[in-house]
Amino acid sequence: MNTLLLGEKDAALAAEIIKRGGLVAMPTETVYGLGASALNERAAARIFEVKGRPADNPLIIHVASAGELEKWCVNIPPSAYLLAGAFWPGPLTLLLERNAIIPDIVTAGLKTVAVRCPDHRLALELIRLAGVPVAAPSANTSGKPSPTAARHVLQDLCGKIEAVLDGGGCRVGLESTIIDLTCSPPRILRPGGVTREQLAAVLGEVEVDAGLLGSGEKPRAPGMKYRHYAPQADVIIVRGDDAARIFDYINSRPDEGAAVLCFDGEERYVKSKICLAYGSEREPSTLAERLFACLRELDREDIKTIYARCPSEDEGGVGFAVANRLKKAAGGRVICL
Ligand code: TXA
Ligand code: MG
After folding, report:
1. What is the Cα gyration radius of the chain?
2. Ligand 1 pocket mutation pick from 60, 96, 126 by most atoms within 8 angstroms of CB
């Protein structure tokens, strides 16, 4: 299949492809999504096929406004409208009871459906013109880092989908925060661009899924249990209070096949290993924006091990989400010094 590369002016064409049951990768403020009509079972099935996604991992449906919630969800609590009012369009996904009109394949047979309104002009235009909710997981091959630029989508899916709508780089860089509103208090199932602190300011009490806190419990969002966001190399997080000790350790490791993912300004401490800085430790949103692009850049035949600096989870904020993704990429390999 020839994958079309579409741009700014092509939202109508992209919407036509979606209406006809095709697959279009679309830009959002978080990561690129692999879009298809959420009301078309065959199109949704193709999403799973081209990504190599396990069938038990449900999809998020994307809407153009909170006014659509009633069409696709039932028993919607007031908290949904409060959150939509505060954070939509934006990087927050609401988990609600599903209307049976949404096909089983989209929700992996669950009674809930995840809904999000993305903060990207082209995505919103595409959804409006298509006239259907757009099911869209991140537009990467399952297991790989999520794409934050159109070229990342092409690396994984060129020739497998009808089109990529290029809307530039993704501002947030990590997938949306998912909050489950079917339980009380509401529970964060995946950390992202909207922080726990921001959610608590609107809702009062908010829980974090124990499966995200290293309790050994199974995470409640099916997708959070897989090794993820991973380049071919082994990612090893190196932590500690003392940066000098961290770099002594990294520098003592063999150089061949090794790379370092560090914070801005730390490049000068790294001796004779490939080195990439992904953002400022003091501004975790900069780390979020570049993490996946850097993991992709280090996804090379000659790189076997990546030593990575990771922000502290204790300070909350977006750093918590960055640490969550890096730990997934590392498959739990953390060295504490
Ligand atoms: O920012 C985002 O959310 C991006 C952009 C494209 O919108 N999308 C995204 O989708 O990250 P995906 O498929 O890569 O991740 C969706 C996550 C998975 O962990 C999945 O298990 C969870 O949402 N999820 C979806 N529906 C669910 C449901 N009904 N119950 C529990 N978890 C659900
Ligand atoms: Mg994904």
Report:
1. 20
2. 60
Cβ–ligand 1 distance for 69 under 6 Å, the answer: no
**Residue with CA nearest ligand 1 atom 3:** 176
Q: How far is the CA of 67 from the centre of ligand 2 (A)?
A: 26
The boundaries of the domain holding residue 312 are: 234-336
- Residue 227 makes CB contacts below 8 A (sequence gap 6+) with 143, 328, 331
pLDDT per residue as tens, the chain (337 positions): 999 999 999 999 999 999 999 999 999 999 999 999 999 999 999 999 999 999 999 999 999 999 999 999 999 999 999 999 999 999 999 999 999 999 999 999 999 999 999 999 999 999 999 999 999 999 999 989 999 999 999 999 999 999 999 999 999 999 999 999 999 999 999 999 999 999 999 999 999 998 887 767 788 888 887 666 777 899 999 999 999 999 999 999 999 999 999 999 999 999 999 999 999 999 999 999 999 999 999 999 999 999 999 999 888 899 999 999 999 899 889 999 9
201 and 256 fall within a common domain: no
Q: How far apart are CA 128 and CA 15, in angstroms?
A: 8
Residue at 228 is within a domain: no
Residue 146 CA to ligand 2 center (angstroms) comes to: 6
Mutate which of 34, 61, 112, 138 for ligand 1? The one with the most ligand atoms within 8 Å of its CB, which is 138
Cis peptide before 89 (omega within 30 of 0): yes
Residues 63 and 169 in one domain: yes
- Final residue of a domain: which of 191, 208, 225? 208
Q: What are the two backbone dihedrals, phi and then psi, of residue 252, each rounded to the nearest 5 degrees? A: -80, -10
Atom of ligand 1 nearest to the CA of 30: 1
**Alpha carbon distance 322, 320 (integer Å):** 6
Count the domains in the chain: 2
User: 30 CB less than 6 Å from ligand 1?
Assistant: yes
